[in-house]
Write a structure and sequence with these properties.
about 80 residues; alpha+beta; 3 helices; globular
Length: about 80
Amino acid sequence: MTLATVASLLDEARQRFQGPEIHVDLSEVTHADSAAVGMLLAWVRDASTGGRRIRFENLNENMRSLIALYGVGELIPGA
């Protein structure tokens, strides 16, 4: 999940995320940059706006490090 892929992932997620509870498995993410953190925050915002709850699962150490670096762990469920 990088700047090059975030736009398409945001659009795809908006079409797929339905229902009151959304669980996002990030176990297949092998590379992430700051754009990925921004995307997670956008997904949280979109879910909240739609009255849904979202939780991220299986974040790798790279993602966790970026989230900690930017100090947004309390905003990203499951981080």
